[in-house]
Amino acid sequence: MRFRSISAIAGSALVVAAGLAPVAGVTAAETSPSPWTPYQGSGFERAAGQLCDFALRGELLSDKERYRVAETYPDGSARVEEWTGQLIFRFVNVETGASVQRNLTGRGDFVYHEDGSWSLVNVGGHIGVGLRPGDDPGMGYYVISGAGYELHQDTTGHRTLAPGDGNAENICETLS
After folding, report:
1. Is the previous residue joined to 137 through a cis bond, with omega within 30 degrees of 0?
2. Are the C-beta atoms of residues 85 and 64 closer than 8 Å to each other?
3. Which residues in the chain show pLDDT less than 70?
4. Using one digit for the tens of pLDDT, what is the confidence trace for 45-80?
5. Which listed residue, 132, 159, 160, 166, has the most CB atoms within 10 A of its CB?
6. In the chain, what's the furthest Cα-to-Cα distance?
7. Of 79, 145, 84, 148, whose CA–CA distance to 118 is shortest?
8. How far is CA 81 from CA 121, 126, 152, 162, in A?
9. What's the CA gap between 82 and 55, in Å, rounded?
10. Whether the Cβ atoms of residue 120 and residue 5 lie closer than 8 Å to each other
């Protein structure tokens, strides 16, 4: 759900609440969650071959997202961010003009690992996740509905989407 560089394609796109264990060897600081901070994302356009076999545009229709730092490392940097709020996009196949509107409203948690990798868990609702060529399970822009799906990006930038309970729609297939 985080629509910075991660979420507007998860390149546009949510773990403590999901019960994941702490990162080995790292002790989180005792903190209370920070106040909620509004976040305003933007639309995107990716050339053919980056997410879909065709150029894909995401038009931001409504963004009422907010986030807060739920847990920090001892140095004060964020370890876990909680993201929530309304997020609605129209996805357009730039070549054909075909489009669909999807509600990406949900709750997702980002966990930033000490080695520079990160994970995003869909706690509930919907999230959007962009995967590039070579990512697993394959290139596409996935709209996830349900809970428990986890996206992990390692330190090389490779992304893996692990299934959870619910559905995953590849917008590229829908708009083909």
Report:
1. yes
2. yes
3. 1-31
4. 999 999 999 999 999 999 999 999 999 999 999 999
5. 159
6. 52
7. 79
8. 11, 17, 15, 20
9. 31
10. no
